[in-house]
Amino acid sequence: MNKGVIYIIYGVSGSGKTTVGRALAGELNIPFFDADDFHPEANIQKMSAGSPLNDIDREPWLQKIATEIINWNTDKGAVLACSALKKKYRKTLESIDKQYVKWIFLDGSFDLIASRLEARENHFFKKTMLTSQFESLEPPENDILIKIDKSIDKIINEIKSTLDTDTSELGLIGLGVMGKSLAKNLLSKDFKLSVYNRHVDQIEVDVAKKFVLEQSDTDTIVGFDDLKKFVDSLAQPRTIMLMVNAGKPVDLVIDELLPYLSEEDCIIDGGNSHYKATLERSKRLAEKRIHFLGTGISGGEEGALKGPSIMPGGSKTAYNRSGKYLEAIAAKDKKKNSCCTYIGPEGSGHFVKMVHNGIEYAEMQLLAETYHILRFYAGKTPVQISNIFNSWINNGLKSYLLEITSDLLLKTEGKDFLIDKILDKAGQKGTGGWSTNAALELGVALPTISESVMARNVSGIKSERIKASEIYQFSTSSNSIDDTSFISDLEKAFLATSIINHHIGFKLLKESSEVYKWQLNLSEIARIWTNGCIIRSNLMEQISSLLLDNNDTSLLLFPEIVKTMKSNINSLSEIVGTGLTAGFSLTVLSAATNYFLTYTSAQSSANIIQAQRDYFGAHTYQRVDKPIDEYFHTNWKN
Ligand SMILES: NC(=O)C1=CN([C@@H]2O[C@H](COP(=O)(O)OP(=O)(O)OC[C@H]3O[C@@H](n4cnc5c(N)ncnc54)[C@H](OP(=O)(O)O)[C@@H]3O)[C@@H](O)[C@H]2O)C=CC1
Ligand SMILES: O=C(CO)[C@H](O)[C@H](O)COP(=O)(O)O
């Protein structure tokens, strides 16, 4: 482990060493010690009798403190209040490497300190000794000098800003797509930053230093490819943000960091880590008294630069200390509140981000299907489809994903649309699949999201799809259609599916909150998703205000939503029927329709499933005409 810094607040009696020392220790979250508590009894009696101590009296006292300083240095550091008036006393106290000792001298006039001492009661030090203290005082040399004729808050701020001149308040590891944007965002908010990127011979050389040189103001950022120097450049307790790829890289970086960290330091993992991995990391780091904030960040490269949506979960102490950086760089909602909020205990931040991405997967698939049917059933060009999407935006369906899809359709390469040049195999990094696994574990239905994952999987078997299409020779039909009513139905189907998808995503959040006892505030989660993130939309604004009134109700049961669904659901069924008949796969639109029809059916087909289970496996069933806690088995063959 790295060594802790000892901050020694010194000056004559009455200068405020104890008050300032305690406050500074609180700010830095390290222990406070008063040198007076280490006096041998003989010294206390001598001082109480009004006799000044001589250097022989002081020697065992200073030696005892010097030994304590060595101990505190191997732990997480400390703040010490000590008169230390003479240079030789200060030399005795400097029992550890100089770099770990910060001397802070409290400077006040005789009159000011005398008036403060007069106001003191029950203290063994008498005002008459002040003169000898001033006589003994040898002026400080290169120490931090703080004038005490101001409030305690101002004194602490001054000490902190002076200490901060040679340290950064925040460290960021990983200057990839997200790391670079977040670093620029943090700099724009005037935070003092150290950045680190690994060195890989001939591949990754001086990445951080080059990044620093590209910035307009290089005074507030320092770049490193040496991890120890990076850690040493940070103010303690440290806050270090990781923006590296999820999975093994996160553990590798944490393992490399650990030898240099001290207790109370905080690591923020801003990548898309799996929530269970975050839970494990939190436990492992808590054993070393290091805080961990598993933090979902959404907004892509541009969002990270201009203001993402941020979902931190984990140590509340760490959030209280380091959350200010995240809140400052996050996007702002319509009321100018930060789109960053403390989500809940360990793992919850990354769970919420995972569900965000699950909703994102289904919204993307919905847009892909909508584009596909407009292009190949309704025969629209990319430009016409872009215009249709824009008209939907103007009608109130505004969402980031709809906007970028409308935009990307206009991109050309020579005479061609770029969209036609892109291979139809969708990639994925896992968050959609993780959401599906979580839903299976928690027994939640997640059809729109899981079907979007499956659609990406099927898209991946491109060569087999080509072979199958040649064997089956199915053709899609594009009968002459009534443009206006088809596009109007599609718009309604799009809205209905999007509502169903959000209902499904929020149900997963609700169930996780109950099972893991996270007490998720769903309205607040929807609020921080109204800006900065990939799934920001008008619908999210509505969801946030609906959930504000009732955190427990399923979305599809809110009267406002019921009204919207009632006027759109027929169009959804209509579009799915038409599309499937015409030979188009509508994975998410169908999944949403099926979910909705099951969800709104008082009588489902599951009685047949129960009868089958009991028939072949004696799994028992409940009856509609008997109490719910009674189970029955039938001998079906007789
Ligand atoms: N891109 C996006 O839109 C979004 C991404 N995320 C998440 O943010 C995280 C970062 O993503 P992104 O910036 O896009 O990824 P990049 O691939 O652009 O950058 C990854 C960074 O991690 C570093 N890194 C990788 N492995 C190691 C290692 N073993 N030791 C040290 N450093 C390592 C890389 O260093 P080097 O340059 O040396 O390889 C690089 O700086 C991921 O978890 C991602 O899922 C979250 C929201 C949006
Ligand atoms: O988190 C994100 C946005 O919110 C990322 O863009 C995410 O990595 C996209 O996921 P995938 O690559 O699986 O499509």
From TrEMBL:
Per the record's keyword annotation, is Cytoplasm included, yes or no?
Answer: no
Q: So what does this thing catalyse?
A: 6-phospho-D-gluconate + NADP(+) = D-ribulose 5-phosphate + CO2 + NADPH; D-gluconate + ATP = 6-phospho-D-gluconate + ADP + H(+)
Limits of the AAA+ ATPase domain: 3-274
Q: Which residues form the 6-phosphogluconate dehydrogenase C-terminal domain?
A: 349-637
EC number(s) reported in the record = 1.1.1.44
Q: Name one GO biological process term.
A: pentose-phosphate shunt
Keywords associated with the record: ATP-binding, Gluconate utilization, Kinase, NADP, Nucleotide-binding, Oxidoreductase, Pentose shunt, Transferase
Q: Which GO terms describe its molecular function?
A: ATP binding; gluconokinase activity; NADP binding; phosphogluconate dehydrogenase (decarboxylating) activity
Pathway per its UniProt entry is: Carbohydrate degradation; pentose phosphate pathway; D-ribulose 5-phosphate from D-glucose 6-phosphate (oxidative stage): step 3/3; Carbohydrate acid metabolism
Annotated InterPro entries: 6-PGluconate_DH-like_C_sf, 6PGD_dom2, 6PGDH_C, 6PGDH_Gnd/GntZ, 6PGDH_NADP-bd, 6PGdom_BS, AAA+_ATPase, NAD(P)-bd_dom_sf
Q: Belongs to which family? A: Belongs to the 6-phosphogluconate dehydrogenase family. Belongs to the gluconokinase GntK/GntV family.
The UniProt subunit note reads as follows:
Homodimer.
Q: What does this protein do?
A: Catalyzes the oxidative decarboxylation of 6-phosphogluconate to ribulose 5-phosphate and CO(2), with concomitant reduction of NADP to NADPH.
* Protein name per its UniProtKB record: 6-phosphogluconate dehydrogenase, decarboxylating
What's the source species for this entry?
Aquimarina amphilecti
Lineage of source species: Bacteria, Pseudomonadati, Bacteroidota, Flavobacteriia, Flavobacteriales
